[in-house]
Model the fold of this input.
Amino acid sequence: MLRLYIVHKILSVNKGNWMVKISITTTIIFASLFAGCSNRVPQYTEINGFTQGTTYHIVADIGPGLDAGELRGEIEALLTVIDNSLSIYNDSSVISLINRNVSDMTDTLFREVFRTSAQVWEQSGGLFDITVG
Done:
């Protein structure tokens, strides 16, 4: 129940902030560590899929109060948001449209990643190149 609450709180904090969303994995890991202190027998579920031109495989402990289908839906929704903004494998993503000079419209996720990339470029003295995949 605690893990479900933590995941839901992170998802609901700010739907446009990808850093918060990315921290879901970290939260699940830490919550699982805390759950390891109990005598409960873990119940694992596997979530597999395709995104960003590759596959993903997640194994999660679904304790009391955590619904595997709901968790799967939240993960897929998050990955779809990322894919629709930043995937070069998705012809209709924000970055693909910009790269083909079809649009100059960005979204919150694209702007945050671009801003962070500019900071890393500056801090690395120009050694980091956002255009190299």
